[in-house]
User: Fold this.
Amino acid sequence: PQLYRIAVGDRISVLVKNQIQLSGDFEVLPTGGYMQPLVGELAVTGQTLNEAGELLRQRLQGIVTNPEVTISVRT
Assistant:
């Protein structure tokens, strides 16, 4: 799963530890991203799950103290 690359149409599950309002299931849009609360559209197409999680973690810096992010693909 770590080498899986996110594609348009995927349903991804985003977990931001202790931040239920930032966590949830999202669909990757034809634009290549998904709408993440507080961040806006986050482009994730072609990234691994770890890369997408790191991108979100970086974007949440300054909004959430020490964000811990896990992204998985919903089946």
About this structure: The beta strands are 11-16, 24-27, 33-36, 40-43, 69-73.
